[in-house]
Amino acid sequence: MEIHSREYLKRAREGGDVRASVTGATLSFDARRRAAYAGVAAEEWRVWAEGVKTHLLTHLDRYLEEAETRLVANGARVHWAGTQEDVHRIISGIIERRGARRAVKGKSMLSEELEVNELLEKRGVDVLETDLGEYILQLLEQPPSHIVGPAIHLSLDEIRRLYHETHGTELDATPDELAGVSRVILREAFLAADVGITGGNFLVAETGTVALIENEGNIRLTTSAPPVHVALVGIEKLLPRWSDLAVFLQLTARAATGQPVGNYVSMIHGPRTVEDPDGPEEVHVLLVDNGRSDVLADPEAWEALRCVRCGACLNACPVYRQTGGHAYGAVYSGPIGSVLNPGLAGLHAAMPLPFASSLCGACEKACPVRIPIPELLLSWRRRAVDAGMDSRAKAGLLKAWTAVATRPGLYRAAGGMLHALPDPVRRVPLPVVGGWREVRTDPEPSRASFRELWRKGIE
Amino acid sequence: MSEQPTSGSEPKAPPRPVSGSEARTPASGPAAPVRASLFVTCLGDHFYADAAASAVRLLRKLGVEVDFPEAQTCCGQPAFNAGRDAEARRMAAHTLEVFLESEYVVLPSGSCACMLRRFYTHLSHDGDLSAQAADLAGRTFELAEFLVRVLGVTDVGRGLEGRRIAYHHGCHALRELGIRKEPLALLANAGAEVVPWEAAEECCGFGGLFSVSFPQVSAGMADRKLDTLAAAGEVDLLTSADCGCLLQLSSRMRKRGQDLDVRHLADVLWEATGGDS
Q: Chain A to chain B, count of Cβ pairs less than 8 Å apart?
């Protein structure tokens, strides 16, 4: 654990000014989320949404088949993708058949998980991220650090310097000017692209509708301008009914950014038809598992699959605020990442994330689908202990403590010794576990234990 | 797992006391005094002994008959949070035994109160222990919560007149047990001006062993508390109902060379009654 946590901290430190940028951005998101929750019967919405997602996950086979049937009836092509390799094979097939050379992408965490950009580059396809934050990160060759605000770890000045170097803008350019420069480049890319690739916030089984929430309009263009649209949808992203979507769109936007609804909501039913001649010639929907059915089968981990990727738990998290997302060393960061990554990528790869939490519970209170994140963290901790992944020093300490704390006589004697120690020494006691002293003064024991005071009589 | 109580979102009403003594009026009824066992907790015993003594004085002054079962040790939360349920279960079993006969169990710690009230039931899968845990949950209260919700006391005296006090909400008390207004009301009714503070409800970064496993992150969390507190204007003292949080905040504060009176809520409330600690 010590070694792991050093790695974690080293990553955290490498970020430089990350703390200030992340703290500012997440506090602002979180304040807007609170205000938006306060404007509706948020508790009722959350309980309802939890129920819908739980129902979906416990009847997933049925809804997946219903979604497939509806999508096919709408003219979309449905691909079942069990693994990342399946996804790569399917996408390769599409780009080869279409002779695609240029791709535009909407922001998608699943595409990060599946390393779609790497695949496209290997296949000689020019791929351009069209979400402004993702576009900036593509220039920097960095992964996103936040589910909703991928570049929130960057300061405006860092972005100004980047644009000065890459686009020749002034060092004091306004955000509008920077966006304007990007818009010109992106607009051309949309029109030239052979394929548009997105994720999917929701897939409504009843109607075969892929719903996408965004604020910049880039997803609207990615899904409508190129002749081919490929949507990557995790199997947990389904909703049973069309009417569910109305609430989930509003709840997710509120949770994510405090907006009543996203600036743009695209609802994709299928390709262009004779009656509806706009949109792509082909729409492909990939139903992606990639470890999700294993998580679903796990009685202590499955609730993490209710996640709608709003990022509210990241914004509420005091740990995330200190480290930013890159410190987590995984696609999904923050509290949800710490309970999702062990299930998707394996616990060993995700260590020490389940331990990197003070269990303060702010995440659970923010979550629109009431995922009991602290409880899930504890479950992963128990498994890490069972698998011998946690530190031996800590194990020894807690076993010794238990031996003392289940023997009142011994406990009393040990406590007595603590208070009998001469002054400079007695300040050392409990946190011999080095980490305390690194950043704090030694805690000072009381002059006498309470039980001594009690025996002498409290007046 | 979905049926487990921590997935609840809103602070729920506290469990009903099983012994049905809420009809008594402790302040005025020496004929039928409320009896409470103090669970001082390991940190309280050894680092906040004087505050725990203040809690005893305060409870007695309010007519509560206080006892202290001497076999008590640690509630087991360090092991529970570390994923070591076997060890936590042994400490829970010990604690359940110690407080088997107590009418009420009162703790000067929201976090340990939460351990007894919410997490023991997670640990106890076998019949006897599980029934004992459910029973103890109904009798267990954090100090301020006990005063307000069980004793019905919101006024302990006016001894804090003119004091500007910042209150740190411990996470378990606030988010798991739904204790927010109780300590604030007790302070305000004692004449204190409770200073609003941006990060008052954020985690201080203690988190038990988290504080030593991730010291830099933990210290950063404490720094955000302390920085926003400094921005809140003149404050006479910082108080909280959790020994762990107090240890974290005061130790980090001293390391930064800051000097602010940091005291346990029990001490402050005893002062409010006009008593000396």
A: 230
